[in-house]
Design brief:
This protein is of the alpha+beta class. 48% of the residues lie in helices and 17% in strands. The protein has a single domain, classed as Winged helix-like DNA-binding domain superfamily/Winged helix DNA-binding domain (Arc Repressor Mutant, subunit A, Orthogonal Bundle). This is Helix-turn-helix domain-containing protein.
Length: 133
């Protein structure tokens, strides 16, 4: 029943650690994204929690979370995003996109399209899972 947890204990021993992992094909993507990250209890004790503030602060506004969801689901241009009343004016959309991009949650790809970078898909979905369950 706890196959992931049992594997973590088998790998790291009784001291344990924390890990997250995922394998998913995002909507509209041609191939799956796979990601795994984990740290031992010892490595976790060396982390400065405050170092996460920038990445987590980008989630501090519900519009940003809704933008991330829309982009993850395939709405990729500012014109498309601005047409959705939930996101406000074009200027407001750009403001939120820049905040998310500077924190690493989005990237601007050619011809004005935005996407969640592959290496951020599983971390993003993990945070959403944590926040909703």
């Amino acid at each position: 029943m706890f196959w992931a947890l049992n594997g973590l204990v088998d790998r790291l021993g009784p001291e344990g650690g924390v890990t997250y992992t995922g394998h998913i094909t995002p909507p509209g993507a041609e191939s799956p994204v796979s990601w795994q990250m984990g740290l031992s209890a010892e490595a976790l004790s060396e982390i400065d929690f405050a170092a996460a503030a920038g990445a987590l602060a980008a989630f501090s506004h519900p519009v940003r979370l809704a933008l991330l969801q829309a982009i993850y689901e395939g709405t990729t241009t500012v014109a498309e995003l601005s047409a959705d009343d939930r996101f406000g004016t074009t200027g407001q959309v750009y403001h939120h996109l820049k905040a998310l991009a500077s924190a690493g949650w989005l990237e601007n790809i050619p011809r004005g399209h935005w996407r969640v970078p592959a290496q951020k898909v599983i971390p993003l979905l993990t945070l959403i899972l944590i926040g909703t369950h």
